[in-house]
Structures are given as C-alpha cells and as structure tokens.
Design brief:
The structure is a homodimer. By secondary structure, chain A is α+β, with helices and mostly antiparallel strands. Chain A contains six helices and five strands; from the N terminus they run ααααββααβββ. Chain A has a two-stranded antiparallel ribbon. The structure holds a DNA duplex.
DNA sequence: CAGTATCCTCGAGGATACTG
DNA sequence: CAGTATCCTCGAGGATACTG
C-alpha cells in the first residue's frame, strides 16, 4: 500500500478526479438538473452521462428526485454532501480564472446573492482568522516532514 | 462548441482533472520534490510520472530546479501558479475528510504553522465577509438562471 | 538516480441505434 | 424524454528492461 491510498484526497479523487464528473457537477451547480440539459450543455455521450450520474448518485453527491410521473422522470439534485463541494468548485474556478483563463473570454464571476459583491475562496486559520497560503500551512501531529 | 469548453473550470480541469496529476501535486505540497520520492510514495509507474511531471511543468504549475550537477538532477518545485492551487487541495481534502473519509483512519489535519490551530477552506463574500454556501452564491452579469 | 523505450492489455470514450 | 444496448477504436495505464 502506498500513500496514494486511504487518505482524504485520494478518497475525494475517486469522486471528482475525473473530467466528466467534475463537469457534470459544475452543470448541476449551475442549475442544470435534467439528463437532456446536461447532455446538451456538456456535449457528453449519453452512455457516459448515465455512468457519471450513476456514480455521483452512488457516492451520495447527487440524488434522483422525480419531477413527473407516468412516465416517471427524475432530475438530479445536490445532496448535502454535494452542496459541500461548493468550495472545491469555487476554488477551482478561481484558480482557472487567475492562471488558466483564455484572456479573450471574460472570467465567470460568482457573487454573493445578497450583496452582489464577488465571492472569494480562501484558506484561513480557525484561530487567528488570517488568510493562509501554502507556506504557512503544515500537517498536524506529524514530525515535521524530513523526507 | 459546448459549455464544456472555454471556461475557467474546464481550463483548470485540463491541469488537475486527472487522478495522477492531483496526487503528484499533493505529494509536492507535502514536501516530496524528487522523482524517486514521488514514485515511491505514489506507487506510480515511472513513465506515467515522467508524463505527469512534464505536463505540470508545461502548465507552469511546477518547475524543474537543479539540485545537483554531474550528472545534473532536477527536483520539482511549485511555481507561483502552483502554490495558488493550495486552496483547491485544501478544499478537496476538507471535503474528503468530512464526507468520504474511511472512518477507521484519522483525518489529516492541516494547521496554521504559527498558531498550531486547524485551517479551514471557505468561500466568503469580499464585501460583508460572510461565509457562503452554494445557496447564497450566484453568477454575476447573468439573467438569473430560469432553467 | 532519474528517467526513456517497448510492449501489451484493458477499458474509457464516443457513435449509433434502439426503447419504455 | 431519458435513458439502455452494442460495437469499435484508441490510448491510458502498467510492467519490464534498459541507459547516461
């Protein structure tokens, strides 16, 4: 067994470390909930969309909610666990905007619905509230990494 | 062209929407900088590690820094753009801890080096500073999504 | 030690057609 | 409309051997 197993990042990677899964989630966060909406928006093959939606439902990130009967049709809604992925998506989007954005297209800004002001994703100290970058973060209960 | 192209998430997904790339990055954030360290830690095949390191260097997320001459040997360091991925990794780790963690293994806590207190990744409003979840975030300059 | 070169296999991905 | 079923192809992934 290597360090690639059994930690919280690799556990999360099973769910979101996949191009289509991440793009499907982005779509659901954007308000696309139905199969056809997602398929048309993403340009994903239907068998792949079926697969990804099924996986996300299995991981309890999405849940199927019937929106019509006879025939029954489901839409895909974020679960609590799915909504908790919001900071991940925001962090990714923010990084993409800053470092990977095609300069010709405008960045996609997210705002606080009440204030109408931009949101930002940060990592901060729960004690002093300071915004932290990688240099000021270390692993707890671990002899300082000597490797 | 579909919505899958040409936005900041799909731009970022090219870099990190891949299991091994993300795990390599995690390793570098943890202080593993040399080829052999990463290979042994991740259990990744050497050709794949070569490929992923090369891609991350191309994306200017990592850079090669010589640490020895005759023969010259390089180690892989985060660039500014790479360090800026810290919130993404922290957000992913935090989510994995909360929702995907194998209950038998302890979560991997990150702390502020000065305070020794745990860090947290959040999304907040740049104006009122409130911590925001998905329900309070919307896209700017966009008729409110009616779909 | 830090890769490069080769080879093989399996399965992801996509296209297309079909169905309750 | 929301999938399921099939089929095909290509390339990612891994193992192994080799090299400056």
């Amino acid at each position: 067994m290597t360090a690639a197993d059994n930690d919280s990042i690799s556990a999360a990677v099973e769910v979101i470390g996949d191009r289509w899964s991440l793009l499907v989630l982005r779509g659901v966060f954007r308000g696309l909930h139905r199969f056809g909406e997602l398929r048309d928006d993403l340009g994903i093959a239907s068998n792949l969309l079926t697969d990804r939606l099924g996986r996300l439902v299995n991981y309890e990130v999405l849940e199927k909610v019937p929106y019509q009967h006879r025939p029954v049709r489901y839409e895909y809604r974020l679960t609590e666990s799915g909504r908790a992925l919001s900071p991940v998506l925001v962090a990714i989007m923010q990084w993409g905007d800053s470092y990977r954005q095609d300069p010709t297209s405008a960045p996609m800004t997210l705002v606080h619905a009440q204030c109408n002001a931009p949101v930002e994703n940060i990592t901060r100290c729960t004690q002093c509230n300071e915004v932290l970058d990688a240099q000021h973060i270390r692993r707890a209960d671990h002899r300082t990494s000597t490797t």
